Amino acid sequence: MSVQAWTYILVGFSFALYIGIAVWARAKSRSDFYVAGSGVPPVINGMATAADWMSAASFISMAGLISFMGRDGAVYLMGWTGGYVLLALLLAPYLRKFGKFTVPDFVGDRYYSQTARFVAVVCAIFISFTYVAGQMRGVGIVFSRFLNVNITVGVLIGMGIVFFYAVLGGMKGITYTQVAQYCVLIFAYLVPAIFISLMMTGHVIPQFGFGGTLADGSGVYLLDRLNGLSQELGFLTYTNGHKSTMDIFFITAALMVGTAGLPHVIVRFYTVPKVAAARSSAGWALLFIALLYTTAPAVAAFARTNLLTTISDAEYKEAPEWFKNWEKTGLIKFEDKNKDGRIQYRGPNSDIENELSIDRDIMVLANPEIAQLPNWVIGLVAAGGLAAALSTAAGLLLVISTSIAHDLLKKGLLPTIGPKKELLAARISAGFAVCIAGYFGLHPPGFVAQVVAFAFGLAAASFFPAIIMGIFSKRMNKHGAISGMISGLVFTAAYIIYFKFMRPELNSPAYWWFGISPEGIGTVGMLLNLLVASAVSFKTPPPPPEIQELVEQIRTP
Amino acid sequence: MNQSLRHQRSSYWKLNLRYLGILLSIWFITAYGFGILFVDHLDTIRIGGFHLGFWFAQQGAIYVFVCLIFVYVRLMKGLDKAYKVDERDAGPS
Q: Does the domain at residues A3-308+367-555 carry the CATH identifier 1.20.1730.10?
């Protein structure tokens, strides 16, 4: 059967599965819609959290990024996993004990202030929209590359599916579809990785193959070969770092803290029945995430080695079939500058001019073809990419709809509406959110890639410190929290806007403060937030006794 | 609230904070110490095909993170039991 046929079958089957689950697990009440009735077992919630968290970027782009960055790629690996330790130890159990519906709920109640709630709502909506635009685009790209439909149709189909199960199922529907999506995506990621590991190193487990010797009988370690090849061709050595330690430190911290402050991740911990379940479900989530995140760097190294050995200095006419296939999509570009009919793939340190440019997304998408895996594996990768994008999009859309229906309407503008009406409002706003997200998917603002730094930076500089202080300091009052959040936000936003949008030509280490890039500035924003909040709360009256009692209460299960 | 309950709560919280302190120190040392600050020193040690620093940055730190959470779950399970902190199964009120 052809690749196309397999892809249609596997994608069609997985979509039918998601819809079936959505019908079965549809939300009946407000609590079902917001937090799945708080009845999700910890392992199931861990799986759903993993799918929620791992987006199109994790599935499609991350291994490619690492394979072009070498050791510095660890900022993503550690940054996007280390935050779960913070979540499990510092946030999840207490927020579960608090037990409302949303993150702004906590901020608003703990700081007894509508202003604080409003700041939190605006952040939650902004962060989620930033993120969701990228997911819809991802759906469109997978559709167009694997199924030969155009991006518009792809985005519309993706919107339709998400609309169906997010609006109908709410959090409950999303949770169980995310479980199915996790299974699809992890299977789709591991199968090609295992095949390639076997092919290149003879190890079944990619994490071992990564540090093993090559299967070609030379007895050379894979990473040594990769370093040797890189140097020979004028690239930077793979296992050494090339960014400044300072910057690596701050980016990693911003991603970790940002992860722990992302509303669509936090809200998942409201869905488990108990405080102890919130703790263990964070552990399960990270375990499921680690399966992909420890495989990704292995895939990155395999793909890079494979690419350098098969492509460089090969005769263009005899280039493998996948090379030609991906050349058609424009993701591989070859220009025979010295007209010798060979592909010279060279790095910046080489005397010979480079003739090849490769889009980093290829590392995962074309991997099955490069390794000559059966056609069904290629179809599987398409289904996995879609699962990753759809699951994250659904989680984000839910945050947007609850923020609007619950935090903005019920707790703000229209406090008199009943639970039924509130549920309806949540469904309508989910519908609207899908449409807006779809619009951004079709007409991506040129700055989608840049604003990801924004989402993490803002989450790090606003939510994370406000929640932590709300739990660990009884003295923290509303004046402190609000001024902390605002100064963290303004500082982080200003730094990112200045270097990414106003003066992009200055966006280089020479101009950054202390060598900290806009990606890492959220860490400084967080520290500033903590500092300002502590100073202001010290000078203003302590919170009322009932709030101090609330803090006492959330500290014990 | 009576005095002994208040006392109980505060000693439960103190023990919890101590666990957090220890576990987060390990978290920091593994990720930021081994994976970032001392990575080049550790890279002089080799285990199989890996330089140790590189391995921590791209593999080891993640395994340590997973273990840390499950250790915390275990520790808190013991603490909850010792302090007989009762947990209701109810949803949000």
A: yes
